[in-house]
Amino acid sequence: MTQEIDEMLDFLLYEKGEEITINVAVQVALIIDAADKPTYYDDKIIRVKGQLKTGDMIGYNNVKYLVISQVNKEEKSYKARIRKCSYRIAFNWSGNIKWFDCIEESSFFDVSTGTIISTATGNIFVTLPYNSDTRAISLSQRFYVTNQPFKVVGIDKSQEGLIKLNCALDTIIQTDDDVENNIADRWKYEVAHTYALTIINGDAANVLINDVMQLNVTATDNGTSITNPAVTFASNNPEIVSVDNSGKVMGIELGQATVTAKLTYHNTISDTITVTSVETETHNYSISISGSSTIMSGVKKSFVSHIYDNGSEVTDKSVVWSIRNQDGTTSMAYATITASTGTSVTVKADLSISCVGKYVVLKATLSDDATVFSEHIIEIIDI
User: Could you give all domains of the chain from N- to C-terminal order, each with its CATH number?
Assistant: First the structure.
């Protein structure tokens, strides 16, 4: 049968062959499901004319497969068993992060012995191609799989072309690990970014039909203002209220729409405003507070209120300022107001070390309408 396939290989590849990649090179291959057990693995048999090695990475139907068996060299072709990679994991070498497609298993079928090998409870096996990058993996090195940390407790390089890692469940290090993106020790070597975006026109505004209102936004990175942030705007009902790429909103028909602003390169960071398209203008006041999100203990900082009517800033209104502890305690004020006007305020954080890490809420209330207000949360930090 093998001889017959070899003799017909060119014809079969032409008629039945599928395009794949071997590492990065494009090839044509015959691929069939593996007939032997266990069936819960997505194993396949591959036959190609080009050279094939254990540990080669196969791209097939937009999925990565790893050559896990020895390779049979026939007269005109190479034949091997491949297994679907189940995860993509990152290893971190002092800030140099490299990603690898791998096979992750709590037990695996050893194709050389035909037996099932199980791990200890809480352990996993990870199989990777053995190359110049994976050669650097060491014992106790940490990585993440589905937001769970593991560390390498055993390394097996006995099968040529492959490296097999025995890994134990580890502890999350909140200060160092980027758990959301499955990167261990990331914040040891990089600055963690906390982005915020605010539409400063308020939570709601009216716009006249065929009139235009400009939406304004502020964006911060770790509490520091971002100059000219890249922002993407969208309306959930553009037939009622439209918005362009610069944040200009237009009333099209009577009705209401939600307009969303997102940081273009961090699109999970967003803010929304409800915009009502009206025939006649009515007042719709809102307030925003500009200023830092932190104050060092014992230090003063200034904040400014911006008052909007239907999304446009007005100067004929004023606010009343107040401040309170976010946790509701009243026995000690974590910060106090030292001076204020109808549009600005100076806040001083208490010098006591017990206030470090606490939060206060600065509130600006419209002088002639107590139902209109804005709150700004401030953290007290160490000097």
Answer: 2-84 (no CATH), 87-189 (2.40.10), 195-278 (2.60.40.1080), 285-381 (2.60.40.10)
